[in-house]
Amino acid sequence: MSAPRAWFGQPRGLTILFLTNMWEQFSYYGMRALLVYYMTKQLLMAQGSASIVYGTYTACAYFTPIVGGVVADRLLGKRRAIILGGSIMAAGHFLMTFEPLFYVALATIALGNGLFLPSLPSQIDDLYEPGDPRVGWAYNVYYVGVNIGGFLAPLICGTLGELYGWHWGFGAAGIGMVAGLAIYLWGQRYLPDQARHPPVERQDAPRLRFPRETAVLLLAVGLSVTVFRSAYEQVGNTVALWADAGVDRRAGGGTIPMTWFQALNPLLVMVMTPPLLAMWRRRAARGRIERPARKMAAGAMTVAGAYLLLAGLEWMGGPTHWAWLALFFAVLTLGELYILPTGLGLFARLAPQGLGATTVAVWYLATFAGSLSAGLVGTLWSRTSHAGFFLLLAGIAALAGLLLRLVDPMEQRLEPSSSDPQVRG
Q1: Which of 132, 295, 308, 373 is the most exposed place for a label (fewest CB within 10 A)?
Q2: What proportion of the chain, given as a percentage, has pLDDT over 90?
Q3: What's the CA gap between 411 and 409, in Å, rounded?
Q4: 374: closest CA among 254, 188, 227?
Q5: How far apart are the C-alpha atoms of 135 and 141, rounded to whole Å?
């Protein structure tokens, strides 16, 4: 357990995990903000090849945690997994400063992320005694770190990369990872003892079973989210390329760096989440609880509307004023908040006892498959008109929304009265 005294009304260990997560996300999104530009401008890759590399990398970043979580639970323990994973990730970011080691660097970052990502949030419950009411919103506090790190990364790493050289941006991402590790090591006395050792496996433990109806429902939701991710993940890929070449970024006598627009999404998440949660609580108090699958379908349709906006702007001819790109991110983020946190909450809530990590790993598996699919879809950017491509993305997101509506009756039968926790994933 943590020390008796608390910070901000929560155990001190939550602040340590929050800050560690924030700097890890800073390093990840800082590198990702530069990746597609670095490949097309510095390494002179063809757009289609760069899209495949981008999609494969982001997919692997969500696949390796599935293996890394098992390694942390059974072999290393959470503390050692975080230290080892974070060190490997920092090394990978610094390797990005050497062009010949580009692919080695990407593989190194993905490998370290696999050990780091699942081990950090799994320590949160260990900070609290059973029945402590504060744990109910501890995950909301923790996940704010994702958005703070994601907001700062394009502004700092992106600006350094664009104005002073790509390697300066990658180096800043590496320094961010080192800062996160330093905070984690410094705050060990505030973290639970359970994080230091792997659990002892009981030989007489009962064999766990996954209910068939639950498995079918989560599989259907996961496939729908995979389709959705094919469109959503274009934000850091083809939409980033369009922001560079098709958007008039002049403002106040200067030019807005293209990577700054990638900071809009996490900023808008921080701004939009409190009023959305307040609205959903008011509806729940009046007995109007929207089922998760239907809420997710609404989010997918909202993202489809965001891409329809870009298709219309391209159809009218460019270049497009940067304010329209900001509006696109606002609509996209609104849809994201309806679908992605809700989906993660649904997976976590329906997990059978003893299979929580495995069930959440399935959510990351959908993210992995969707990222791979997004890379393939992105190859069409240079083969079709931009208006046609954005129209295709709108159709993909709308298809995901339709699939989720078809899943809704199944979810209603399995979970007739649900109120899902809202966490970002």
Answers
A1: 132
A2: 32
A3: 5
A4: 227
A5: 10
> Do residues 36 and 240 make contact, with C-beta atoms less than 8 angstroms apart?
yes
Return the ∠ at Cα 169 (arms to 163 and 174), rounded to 5°: 165
Separation of alpha carbons 305 and 311, rounded Å = 10
What is the average per-residue pLDDT within 232-253?
86
Looking at the chain, the domain(s) classified CATH 1.20.1250.20 span 1-199, 210-418
Q: Find residue 45's DSSP bridge partners.
A: none
Structurally, at CATH architecture level, domain 1-199 sits in Up-down Bundle (1.20)
| Confidence band of 388 (pLDDT split at 50, 70, 90) | very high
Q: How far apart are CA 371 and CA 58, in angstroms?
A: 6
Tell how far CA 336 is from the center of its chain: 11
Strands (E), 234-327: 247-248, 250-251, 254-255, 320-321
Asked if residue 2 has pLDDT above 50, the reply is: no
Query: For residues 323, 328, 333 and 339, what is the CA-based torsion angle, rounded to 10 degrees?
Result: 170
Q: Quick check: 1 pLDDT over 50?
A: no
pLDDT confidence of residue 196: 52
Residue 251's φ and ψ, nearest 5 degrees, are -160, 130
The verdict on domain 210-418 having CATH code 1.10.10.10 is no
Q: Do strands 6-7 and 10-11 pair parallel, antiparallel, or not at all (unpaired)?
A: antiparallel
* Cis peptide leading into residue 100 (ω within 30°): no
